[in-house]
Fold:
Amino acid sequence: MAGAALPLDPYVGQDFYVPAYEVFVRGRKLREETYDILSVTYTDSLTNLDSVDLQVNNWDATKRTAPYFGPSATHPEVFEPGAEVQLLMGYRGAADDLRTMVTGQLTSVDVELTGADAMLESRRISAGQQLEVVARVALGGTPTATSGDPFGQVSYHVGKDGTLNIVIDRLAH
Structure:
């Protein structure tokens, strides 16, 4: 009988790389917040400014709070418009190769509501409904409007209207 064959490890000496990204806000690397980033889209253009879109989950099911946006936000400063944002993308492996793709300012926050976002089970959002959507800056940090709070309002037809902008141009009385 010939000598016993030794098992070969086909991975010995091989480098494997996986796509990776890092986001810095105000010079601080996001660590825990990275788990709430659902997608990162980087757009490189010869004719327009480069940009990055971050889709962020704004619900902590354990604490039952919205960590980044809203009157009960525990970390509202993280994705605050005006903050400096830096995106690095590349690969992690034997030698990390992450490169700065864009450094700029967070310019806007878009909110997407679905039927699953209803606060009461009996008050689901569904196609055909006419809604009044109000955006308010809670200067006092309370969920109810107080005199002097800036706000904007727009009518919305669920399933018919697309993306709408709300202009905050009034003050609560």
User: Anything to note?
Assistant: The longest strand covers residues 84-92. The mean pLDDT is 84. Residues 115-171 form one domain.
